Amino acid sequence: MFYFTVNNPQDPLSTEIVETNRRDLAFWHRLRPKDDDDLATAINKICVRTGLSRKLIAACLFSICFLPYLPNFHKLVEKLGHLDMARINAITKAGEKVPSEKRELFDAYLVDYLTPRAEAQCLPQASSISAMMRKFIAQHCPDDKASSATNDGSIRYRRNNKGGISITVDATASEVTEIKAALEQMSKDKDCTPGTSLLHIIRGLPTKVVLNTYGTKDSPEYLEGGTWLSKEQSEFWKTRTTSSRDMDAAHFSYTTAYAPTREMRVYIKGLRTTCSVPGCSVAVENCQLDHIIPWGEGGPTTPWNIHPLCVFHHIQKTEGRLQCYPLPDGTVLFLVDGIPVFSIPDGPLSKSNKTWGTKFGKYMERRIAA
């Protein structure tokens, strides 16, 4: 039987959290104001009696009102009881941007994404769920203004108390990735701080920035740094593609050296969006690449034996306080308090997300086998 770890029927703590999730959902159903009640007054009544923030109250009430428009997802939530209000709120916040004619598709997408595919599968964090919601909006709601590849934007400056300035830039997610990459590359080129890097760029010093997209050469779908591309953004980024490589072949690559090759790094970081430890939401670009079976103990330098770990969990594993084992498809089995938890890849090269250049029959075989 497939289930998320929070639905483990043999674990009393899991049973308790499911009951808590269901009680919370019922709690907010009971607190839903009448349609003709004054909004501000209704929120104030809940705020003073619960101590919860007005923002959280408004989000939970919106979720209760929006869930009926996603009937199949609503049934799944009630059946499994696996989602807390933070996750539900992340979903309904994204759903607000989905046009009414796309809600049925969005509903099916949610059910597919949040139905377990393995025994003891790790439940996605709210941040990972939000990323998948952005993927849906980018690919199916191209008119959404937030996903535009180009905009006029603005830059705001603020003097800080040390005589410097803070700069806030209105930019899309892909533009933020490009700006960050340029600053980091200049820092490496000139061995300087990001602030000095910005000054070098303003002064016109050149630097070469390499960013990876995942997809086909004619249809990139994902930009490294955590951005699922809209159709408009895909058109923009394909004009900047200078080379391509077969990532399927990278899955079987191997080196006798300790450090993975550049191709391996690109592949491994394409399998996941966060640290592979269940429940950790540190972005993959901020993680270190770890040999699951230690290199010093004969662990090979090959993608199936390497996964991203944030610094905190990398230290934990090195100290022997975190146990994990590799599986051939990139899934990692963790033992947490003696309980097995499967951390399944969710990145652009994972089984569930890698659909470009794939034949229908092969894709269905892979999904069924998963």
From TrEMBL:
InterPro entries to which the protein is assigned, alphabetical: HNH (IPR002711), HNH_nuc (IPR003615)
UniProt-recorded Gene Ontology molecular function terms: endonuclease activity; nucleic acid binding; zinc ion binding
GO BP annotations, alphabetical order: SOS response
Gene3D superfamilies in the record: 1.10.30.50
Database matches in Pfam families: HNH
Every HNH domain range: 285-311
Official protein name in the record: HNH domain-containing protein
Biological source species: Corynebacterium glutamicum (strain ATCC 13032 / DSM 20300 / JCM 1318 / BCRC 11384 / CCUG 27702 / LMG 3730 / NBRC 12168 / NCIMB 10025 / NRRL B-2784 / 534)
